[in-house]
Every structure is written in structure tokens, then in C-alpha cells.
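Researcher: Quick sanity check before group meeting.
Model: Go ahead. Protein one:
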Amino acid sequence: MKAIALLGGPQEEWPQTLAANIKKAHKKGALIMASDRGSLFLLELGIIPDVALGDYDSLSDSERQRVEKEVKDMRYSNPIKDFTDSEMLFYAAFIDYKVDTLTVYGATGGRLDHFLVNMYAVLKAPFNRFKERIEFIDNQNIVRFFGSGKHLIPYNAEYKYLGIGTLTAAKDFSIKNARYDLAPVNLSVPTMYSSNEYFNKQDIEVSCSVGTLIVINSRDKK
């Protein structure tokens, strides 16, 4: 089962097709999830989430009551907690609902600390073992994560620019079949190789023997 989630990031960072994408996925049986204000955003789009999680500190009492009335699986957290709202969502998706993949909107833009929390969550147990099944999407970027081994990045004409790097120390990190290839290198700190591109419409291969990789497909703002 696939899952689609909306977090509380700013609406101006959403893809223009977000509502249509979520509605289409829901009709095909995808689990629809939201954290905190994302649950209200979905209701305003005419979409009732299957699961809502968070401390709801960004909602007024009347807004929270509206969400409580509509959502069947409503989960609450203490504002003073070990897991963030997004980490609670990852846990529910993969541990409780056992989804195969999770596409997350509203995870980027706005406050940088919120984005970094969402990104670094893929390094933490128990979420790290699911990192290759998580992607963040906004109006300009698709963000994915990979562990050791070889991975193909399919050609994407719409999001044609790439930032390819590491979130941890890495061994034998390489990039092949891109406009700018990288011979295997060992890196002791997180490193980003930005402004790369596809070459001759080929899929790109990224690999490492040790480490966690991040791949960002990007496009200019519409």
C-alpha cells in the first residue's frame, strides 16, 4: 500500500497539482495521512485524511474540533516529546500501517529547522531502515534517500537538475552517467554535489559501499 502525507509546510511551496495528485492516489487506495496543520489543509482541499497526528498546536480550538469530527484515526502527542509530528507520522505509516512507500508534501519550505528535522529523521531508528521508501516533493524539488549499494535515478525531464550528496560519512561514493560524473571517493563529512544534470536522457547511477545518500531532483520555480 502507498501512503501520501501532507505536513504543515507553506502552501506556496506545494506543487500546483497537489490536490489532484492526492485525490487520484486516494481513489486508487492510497493511505492519506497528515500531521498537525496538514490535516486542516487537506480538509480545506476537500480531502478527509485517514490518519491525523500531532499536538495540533498550530490549530485553533475550532479548527482542531473540525479535524476531530472528520478524521477516524486521530492521534495526539504531547508538545514536549521525543518524536516530532513528522516522525510520529513516519512511525505510523511504516510500523503501524506497514505501507510500502510514503510520499510527503509540505515537508520543505518555511522554517529551516522543520525541514532539517524531517530530513534527518531518515537517519534515526526506527525510520532509517525505510529511508529508500520515502520521498519529499514540493513545487521545485523531489528529495530521495538511499543507503549503500547501487541505485538508478530515472531520467526526469521536468525535474532535470540534480543535487547528489551524502548525509553521513561515505565510502566509495560515485556518480555515473550524469553530465558530471564522480569517480569513487571517500567522504568524512556530509557533502553535496549540486547543479548536476542528466546526460543524453540517461538514468543516473549513484552508489556507495557505506553511507546514506541524498538525491534532489530540481527545477526552476514556476
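Researcher: Fine. The other one?
Model: Protein two, sequence then structure:
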Amino acid sequence: MSSKRYDAVIVGAGFTGLSAALELRDAGRSFVVLEARDRVGGRVEAMVNGLGEAIDTGGQFLCEDMPEVMALAKQHGKTLVESYVQGGMAVQPGPSGESDFDNLYERVTAIRDRMNGIDPDDPSIDGLSVGAWLDKQPDRADAKSGFQSSIEGLWCQPIENVPLWYLISNDRRITNEVFELQYFLKETMHSLAADLARPLGASLRLGCPVDRIETGEDGVVVHAGGESFSAREVIVAVPPVVARRIVFAPPLPADTRHALEVWKSGTVIKLLLRYREPFWRRAGLSGSVFWLEPHGLYACDASRDDDHAALVVFVGGRLALEWGALGEDGLRQALLAKLSKALGPDAAQPLDMLSRDWSNDRWSGGAYSDVVADAAARDAEDVLRRGAGPVSFACSELSPSFPGYIEGAIIAGRIGARVVVDRLKERV
């Protein structure tokens, strides 16, 4: 066991864990951050493509209505690249028969607004999934399919798996009025995570997966990577599905155990395709493609400039499982066929294509955010926010603002650290 006793151990070095660590540092508290991976960032990650370019393969986008991540980007000298949105959006499949796509976006948005007008505590929606609610709506089939595709793309789950009250509650906390994909960072979002980690020095330990947390009257002992770390408090700053794999001794209280068990990870594949030029703009298109079917598929322009033309594609939910099972060549063929139909034959000739399948990621779950999959577990978030003795839980999913986003992760980490600081003061 490490001879040093810390005020707090932080499990995980994503944006939540890093934000918690910096908050503890500013409060003058001792801590160690234990990260299972050989890098920081969690669900924010960068890889080098076949052209030698570092690109974000995890969380990437931000907008002006996300003040915390925008402030950090400015503080660390990052270059904002504004997403290209001029021109039309391609919708697939195209119009046929009686179906057309006039005002499709407005009609899809109308369904979402109607949903969000429901009180999430309304007892009449108890046990109702998003899918079951959508089935009852009077809207045209194309708008309902578009709504389903947007929800499954964002939450990376079949809509019958998502309780209606849960989606309403989350949507009400995602308050941006500008396009949430407004900007990305030229230097990559992962470079911002690395900047946050740099001042932590030896207080950050990579390659230290936490497998056991023991609690006692004096605090906690956290076992990770063959070592043990003693502290007065522990902040578990990983998604709920990952947190529940940790062995707690003695076991957590029954309500806390149940609050961890009700979460489910989605499935998502993110792909970045580089092209010689942004050919879609010649046709007056923005590069955005919205698929009504298959559900959960979306593409948009991610070009740094005219010399770095790119599309980013998100494959979410059931489709991620189907396409992930095709293998690398099968995935490439399936995607290029869809893009070519939407944007023309030039889409089939990328200079490079890099894919990242998060569906079975060991340390992050399978998507941008875990979701509560048990319609009866309305108190799961509150129970986890309360923690259990010296064990605190902090993750983007629990954030009061922008849950499931980088912004939410930063906020959740800071809140978790402040709770610990306040408890430590009470014990003095």
C-alpha cells in the first residue's frame, strides 16, 4: 500500500475526473487520479488517420451555449473551427409516393417539443417507453421515423429501451439554443483533456484500473493496478455501467447497488472520412445527411478547411451492432453505399476512412452516455448523487446541465469535488 494517505482518490481521468482533480487542487486538497487506460480523456480520444492527421474519434463538438468547455478551450488557446452548415441537408431515403420532406425538420422538432411538454413526473407516463409513446402519436410516418432516428442516434439505444420520463428529464437539461455541433477544435478535443491533465503531474496514474474499493471508519482503500491507495474519500468518476464492475467491500447499500444496476450503455461507431475536396458543396449541400432509415445514422461536414475536407458519420443503436458485425471491409462498403446514394458517386472515393467502434469499450461503456433503462427507477440519479458514506459518484450522466456531454462531465466533476471538500471541512 502507498505510504501516503490522500484526502481523495479519483477513479477515472475523463473530463469528469480531471475537472474534479483540478477543483481539489484549487481547494488545497491532496488526491490521486487512477486511470485504467494509458491515456486521459475517457470518451474523448484522438487517433492518427492514414494521412498522419490527429482526429477526434470520441467526443468532439461544442457550442457557445456550453460555457464551461468553451471557457476551457479559450483558456488553453484552442482554435475553434466552425462547422460548415451552409446549403441543404440531404434526407434519405429520398421522396417517394405520397411522402415528401417539406418541413420535415419542423415536423420532427414538433414531436420532440410535444414530448418535452409532458411533466416527467406525470403518473400517466409511468412505465411508458419512448417507443410506446411515439406509436400513439398522430404524426405522419416520415416525421415519426425521423424522430426515432434522431433519438436512437443521440442515445444509441432502441427507443423501446428508453423510458419516456428519462428522456424528457434529460432533454430539459440540454439547453443549447444554437447548433450543438457548432464548433470543434482544430487541435482536437483530446488535446484539451491532455492540457487539463498536465499540471496534475505525479498525482495522475495511468494504467491503474480500479477493481476494488474497501470502506471503513477511517475512509477508503482503493485497489488498482496491483497497488492500494488510502484516502478519506473516493470519487468514482466513471459511467454507471463501468462503476458497477468495481467490487465494493462491504457492499454498497441496497438502494445504491440498485441505482447502479439500472443503467444501460448504448452502441455507437464514429467514422471520419477525408476527401480531396468538399465536393458536396458544389451541389449546394452542407454535407449533413439525415437518414429516416436506417435509424441512428447521421453525417455532417467536419472539414478543417478546404484543404482538409472531411465528413464525420455517427452510427448509433441497433445499426452500430449490425454494421460492427460486418467487419472493417463490410462496414466500409455499407457506409459508402449509403453516402454515395445521398451525396453522389464522389462519396465512394475517400482518401482515408478511420472508424472507432465504441460499442464494447471496456472502460467507457458503449456510447456517449449510459441511460436509465428501468422505467421504475426514477430515483436512480438522485441516489447516486447522494453517494454512500465516503464513496461519491460523479459522471456526465448525473450532471444538472448537459448530461451526456463534455460540458456535463466538467460540471459533474466540479460538483463532486465540492461535495467532498465540504465533507472534509465538516470533519475537521
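Researcher: One line on it for the slide.
Model: The first strand starts at residue 5 and ends at 11.
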